[in-house]
Amino acid sequence: MEPIKITDNIYWVGAVDYDIRDFHGYLTPHGSTYNAYLIVDKKITLIDAVKHGFEDELLSRISKVVDPSKIDQVVSNHAEMDHSGALPGTLRAIGIEKPVYASAMGVKNLSGQFKGAGLNIKPIAGPLDVGSDNLVFVETRMIHWPDSMFSFLPSQGVLFSQDGFGMHLAAPERFDDEVDEDFWRPLALNYFANILTPYTAQIAKVLEKVTADGLVPQIKVICPDHGFVWRKDPAKILSLYSELVQQKPKRKAVIVFDTMWHSTEYMARELTDHLSRQGIETHYYSLKNRHRSAVATECYEAAAIIVGSPTINNQMFPSVADLLCYLKSLKMKNKIAAAFGSHGWSGEGAKLVQAELKTMGYNVPFDEVRVQWVPNEQDLLPLKALGQSISEEIKKVAGDKA
Ligand code: FEO
Questions:
Q1: Is any ligand 1 atom within 6 A of the Cβ of residue 283?
Q2: Which of 169, 130, 121, 122 is nearest to 153 (CA)?
Q3: Residue 282: which H helix or E strand, with range?
Q4: How far is CA 357 from CA 62, 148, 321, 337, in A?
Q5: Is 379 annotated in the active site?
Q6: Is 291 assigned a catalytic role?
Q7: Which of 9, 185, 230, 362 could hold 234 in an S-S bridge, CB 3.0 to 4.6 Å?
Q8: Does the pTM exceed 0.90?
Q9: 225 ligand 1 Cβ < 6 A
Q10: What pLDDT does residue 210 have?
């Protein structure tokens, strides 16, 4: 377990989780990393910890740099358990009395997580002396928890950005310059769409502030809590975030559905063909083989989300309800939406989907399309009309060019 040198006195000492696939309901097909960093100066400072279960990996890497008991202080930029879970075990090796600095909300959250563990959790009170420099802190509430904060080491221009600018990937590479942009961009988008979407307004404000304060040129390295350290060109990930927070719709549609006996599937195929023929980049997803978080990623940049459900026991299909619940929590903006579905007798499924899409704040300008039993050519005609209408709406908001 080797540490990785980032600068002359800053090391990556985190953990690589090759096996995780379900990250609180979000599919992580490539695993993840829990990044932690060690600043070795007159004072030795650990920035963040790792998930519970990875204490040995963290301590093994720290031990290749310094004796863990020599660590003077810990900074907790984010109190979610993938970064705080290993704090008690790590502090038992470091010294349980060593201070753990966190934001005021971080103190509350860590105290709630580790009742009776005897941790010495302290609120940050201005810059923190690390020896030849002070760490300065920027509270980044709700990016993406109330406790979240960034730490910045001005003399080296190193920003410790907790979950911001991260991605879920377990790999031997630690730096952005070890892979191509074509490789990391989809991973960064997937992470942003599933973790940060509800907080785009807060992210936009932070980006505006660091730009207005002239801090962007001072940022030489960004060290997030997941994925790559940005040392080649941190401006690229900053620029991607500046683009993503705008939630500008692209000329793209997502058709997502589940089906009982293939009728809703036939409808989805028909709609996919019509939209595609209108020059819309159309993505067809069956919930039988596509995870909700993969669908959410595709929805992020799409102008339209079109959801199909059969009716089962007077309800929409459970997998569709699961998707809508997940998408609702992400609060995506600037979406056109529509519903369709088949049924045998009562036919509530598509109606319930339509109603739910409206409560999600999407623009739902057209009636749902329903088919009873198995669709014939006549039954499918309304989908041609729906495809035509949706494509016109998409072109209005996303422009005529892809
Ligand atoms: Fe990586 Fe919000 O924890």
A1: no
A2: 130
A3: strand 281-286
A4: 49, 31, 11, 7
A5: no
A6: no
A7: 230
A8: yes
A9: yes
A10: 86
